[in-house]
Amino acid sequence: MANFLFVLSQDDNEKATRCFQLAKIAHSKGHKTDLFFVDNGVKWANSERNFNLKTATGDCPNDYLPYLVENQVPIGV
How is the chain split into domains, by residue range? Predict the structure, then answer.
């Protein structure tokens, strides 16, 4: 089992979606996974923002973030 730390430092929907997607994949494969929001990435800690904005590939942050929250993946700000 490996340890993964995903750091999100930008308020960018595409980058946040990929960050959450990769964190979900790592965690679902049994790896210890943590997320950390820094700089403009802290804006993703706002529960009132739109998590359903689609990326160019058709997915969105809300496709992955609920899994991380439900599985209590640590998210630091």
Answer: 3-76
pLDDT at 31: 98
Mention every residue, 6+ apart, whose C-beta is less than 8 A from residue 39.
Answer: 9, 10
Residues of the chain with pLDDT under 50: none
pLDDT of residue 37: 98
Which residues make beta-bridge pairs with 36? 7, 76
**Distances in whole angstroms, Cα of residue 57 to Cα of each of 13, 33, 52, 54:** 12, 24, 13, 8
Q: Decide if 34 contacts 4 (C-beta within 8 A).
A: yes
Q: How far apart are CA 73 and CA 23, in angstroms?
A: 9
